[in-house]
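[job 0412] stage=complex_fold ligand=guanosine-5',3'-tetraphosphate status=START
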Amino acid sequence: MADIPNIQWFPGHMAKTRRLIQDQVKLVDLVAEITDARIPQSSRNPELGKWIGDKRRLLILNKSDAADPNITARWIRYYEEAGIPAIAIDAKSGRGVQQFLPKVREILSDVIERRAQKGMVGRPLRLMIAGIPNVGKSSFINRLAGEKRAKVEDRPGVTVGKQWVAVAKDVDLLDTPGVLWPKFEDPAVGERLAFTGAVKDQIMDVELLSMRLLGWLREEYPQLLLDRYKLKEEETTGLEEYELLELVGRKRGMLISGGEIDTLRAATMLLDEYRGGKLGRLSLEVPPRKEAGV
Ligand code: G4P
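[job 0412] stage=complex_fold status=DONE, emitting structure tokens
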């Protein structure tokens, strides 16, 4: 998978994005980086750290409704221990979003204090959101900004045209997120991004992908796989991944003429069900050992 280019990103596009983000970073006090809680590491772009330098950062693990809550809690601990403040949210329902502003104020408490000492009391904190496509940046901004979005340029001193939204009395948010590209030189990373739908199916082999997902499910969440597709354990033992896909297709009655199994349809169904959360709250990544860096 490493050699499959992501068609959305080409070198010129990447350079432009990098410059844009580097420019925007200069305007803000903090960058909130959004990731997918099911794959917190694979859905980050490691370049971001380089571009933002020593700018304060908050990691937001979104879609936590779809991830295993115990593993998400471990990730939060892992990042916090590594010096990266992190919270878990679900931008779709809004769960956890209320932690965001207090956390931002906590991270920037010394900035707030310094400004107060300098008599700059009214100056709001400025933030930007960044993340790879499909992690929920727009959903989060909409949650946070809501109807306030209409009032963008009300605040005195804010230049018209700069897209700031006042999300609290003391906090302005850059209305357009920084869109990073996914980085999938490591085939395992590309695979996880594809499982969640962050990388488009047109450039992936759907059957192969679903076979890998089945193999992973059999390994990590066997009971869940058996229950969902009404399989008996003895039916699955010793099966190759492709045979497992056929079995799932057969159980779902996905046949084509001649009694053959429509494995493409079964594969599409399986991926849709995973992405739609029908298989349960499944995390595809666990925190690495402490000594490995973030
Ligand atoms: P982006 O700006 O980072 O590209 O992401 P966006 O907000 O557009 O969200 C991408 C998809 O992820 C959307 O689904 C959105 O509803 C979903 N999403 C966002 N936050 C969450 C979350 O916390 N939990 C879950 N389960 N899903 C979330 P979509 O299918 O593209 O659109 P729609 O069917 O929801 O309209």
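Residues 1-7 have pLDDT under 50 and may be disordered.
[job 0412] exit 0
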